Structures are given as structure tokens and as C-alpha cells.
TrEMBL record:
Its EC number is 3.1.4.-. Residues 68-282 form the HD-GYP domain. This is HD-GYP domain-containing protein. It comes from Metabacillus endolithicus. NCBIfam families: HDIG (TIGR00277). SUPFAM superfamilies: HD-domain/PDEase-like. Coiled coil: none annotated. InterPro entries: HD/PDEase_dom (IPR003607), HD_domain (IPR006674), HD_GYP_dom (IPR037522), HDIG_dom (IPR006675). GO terms for molecular function: hydrolase activity.
Length: 325
């Protein structure tokens, strides 16, 4: 099982490993089948650019660290409902949002790390809601390094799920954090800290963020975590950066845009190379990542030519040179 760009799909060698959903959250194509060229074009038309497939090279590889698709879609539906309620001038369904947050907390606690389902793997109509769910998942994964209480985890998860809710009432990028803050604080059952996640997630320690240009300790820790999670998911889904490059870029922002503490927690929380990623070693040998065991940045690989498996965490002299398509 592995992620591929839809343009790299080969019907003779690949079959879907996860279903494709349309904008109404209905299964358009089920897992375990090949895609007819006509259906492939239809999938492209609805904005899907990433597929999860199984082929000979990725046989036996699982993505156990990924949230299961039905749960992901259910929480996307909660976020979508929140956006639609705000657009209609209705109050947020706080009970549904709290339940979604608790579900994510339980799911993340059960996993060693988190592998995000790309927002580009579903219809464009659902992408912004899927992004919010992914950001919440990342925030909770990062928070494992922070020793937060259950109440803090809940407040962080709710804030992350609603971090872009201001976009339901404005199309202006610079305005949506403040608008989101106003929306969330109307619900007294939601902590003001959650509202500040929406308000400050684009603020930076160096004062170059928005909407208020806050600096240093004026930027709270929760919004910093959300800001990094937001940036990372955008890098992976929108910019199509491989995880190790996104990780390296975020590391350069330590003590400038985000605190060293939060950046280090992020680095210690996410893997550099996802299972199913094909890589080339400095020896010129090619391999595929088959799992993550005892080191997030040093995965287990399988050589493409020999089929031999090697745990890089136990072989420090074996280094990955680059990711290959």
C-alpha cells in the first residue's frame, strides 16, 4: 500500500487500496478494484490528485498509523456542518464538535505516530474540512511531547478543528482568524483557549504574522502548535512536498517563527519517510519504506532488487540519499 499521484496510476499494475469519495461523502470507487480510464477522468474532474494503491512493490506494506477512512470522513462531516451552520448564522453544534475532538484524542493516543490521509485524496468540495481534521490530528500528535492534561487536549483539538471557521464568513485571508475567534467565543461551552487557536494560528514569534503581528510570548503555545500543523499539512497536500522536506523546512523556523520547544515536539512526533515511499541510498541502491519501528526518522526498508529488509535505526551507516518516484 502506498500513496501515488493520480497521474502515475497504472491500471495494469495497481489497484485501489482505499476508496475514493465524492463531495457528498459517498464512495465513488471502492477499494480492491482497478480504475477504468473513464472513471479516472471523472475522479480528476472532482479534484482528486492522490490515490492510495497496492502494487507488487508495495505488497504487504500497511499504513497502520493512519486514521481509518470512515472515522476520518465522519469527523470531516462534523467540521462541514460547523462551517454550514456558521454560514447560516446558526450556533455551533458544540456537542458534536466535542464528541469529534474526543474521538480524535482516543485515536491518536492509540497510535505511535500519525500518517495523514492527504486532503487531495478526496473531492475538492471536502478538502478544506479534511484539512481541519488533519491539523487537529497533527496537533494531538505533537501534544504527546507536551504533557498536557485531558482538558488541555480537548481544548486544543476543538481549536484545531475550528481553526479556519472564520473562512465560513469571509473570503479575506487576513480577516479569517479574527472572524473565527468571534464565532467560537459566542459558544460559552467552548474554552476561550480554543478560540485563541483560531485567532493566533497565523501569528509568528518574529512579529511577521497576522492578524495582529504579535511577538514572542504574546503568541500562545496552542496556536503555535496549530500553526505548525497547518503549515505542514499545506506543504504535503497543496505543495506536494515529501514529508522529510517539509520537516526540514519547519526546523529552520525554530526560535524565529515558532518556539524551539514546539518545533522540537513536532520533529519528535512525525516520520520523515512514510511507508510506501521509494528511496535511493547513497550506495545507489533503491528501496521502499515498509514500516516505522523504533525510530521515526530511521524507517525499515526493503531493497527493490533483492527483497532484503533492513532497519535503518539499527544500521546508522546506511543513509537515504533521496526520494524517487
Amino acid at each position: 500500500m502506498r500513496f501515488i499521484d493520480i497521474e502515475d496510476y497504472n491500471p495494469q499494475a495497481m489497484q485501489l487500496a482505499m476508496p475514493v469519495y465524492d463531495r457528498m461523502r459517498r464512495i465513488l470507487l471502492a477499494a480492491g478494484r482497478t480504475i477504468h480510464p473513464n472513471y479516472l477522468e471523472r475522479i480528476k474532474e472532482i479534484g482528486v490528485t492522490t490515490l492510495v494503491v497496492e502494487d507488487a512493490e508495495s505488497y504487504g506494506i500497511t499504513l497502520d498509523e493512519m486514521l481509518d477512512m470512515p472515522t476520518w470522513m465522519d469527523i470531516i462531516a462534523v467540521v462541514q456542518e460547523a462551517f454550514e451552520d456558521v454560514k447560516k448564522g446558526k450556533r455551533l453544534n458544540v456537542v458534536a464538535i466535542q464528541k469529534a475532538a474526543m474521538t480524535l484524542i482516543q485515536e491518536v493516543n492509540a497510535l505511535k505516530t500519525i500518517i495523514l490521509i492527504p486532503t487531495t485524496s478526496i473531492s475538492e468540495g471536502l478538502e478544506k474540512y479534511a484539512h481541519s481534521v488533519n491539523v487537529a490530528l497533527l496537533c494531538l500528535q505533537i501534544s504527546k511531547q507536551m504533557s498536557y492534561s485531558p482538558v488541555q487536549l480537548r481544548d486544543l483539538a476543538i481549536g484545531a478543528l475550528l481553526h479556519d471557521i472564520g473562512k465560513a464568513v469571509t473570503d479575506q485571508e487576513a480577516e479569517h482568524p479574527a472572524k473565527g475567534f468571534e464565532v467560537i467565543k459566542e459558544s460559552r461551552e467552548i474554552s476561550l483557549l480554543s478560540a485563541h487557536v483560531a485567532f493566533q494560528h497565523h501569528e509568528l514569534l518574529n512579529g511577521k504574522g497576522y492578524p495582529r503581528g504579535l511577538k514572542d510570548k504574546e503568541v500562545l503555545e496552542f496556536p503555535q502548535i496549530c500553526g505548525i500543523a497547518n503549515l505542514y499539512d499545506r506543504m504535503l497536500s497543496n505543495q506536494k512536498l515529501p514529508p522529510h522536506e517539509a520537516l526540514e523546512l519547519i526546523m529552520t523556523k525554530s526560535d524565529d517563527e515558532y518556539s524551539h520547544k514546539v518545533v522540537q515536539a513536532f520533529v519528535n512526533s512525525v516520520p520523515s519517510y512514510l511507508p510506501g515511499t521509494k528511496v535511493e541510498l547513497y550506495t545507489g541502491e533503491q528501496a521502499i519504506v515498509i514500516g516505522i519501528k523504533n525510530h521515526l526518522q530511521r524507517p525499515v526498508i526493503r531493497f527493490l532488487e533483492s527483497g532484503k529488509e533492513l532497519n535503518l535505526a539499527e544500521n546508522p551507516s546506511v543513509l537515504i540519499s533521496k526520494v524517487i518516484n
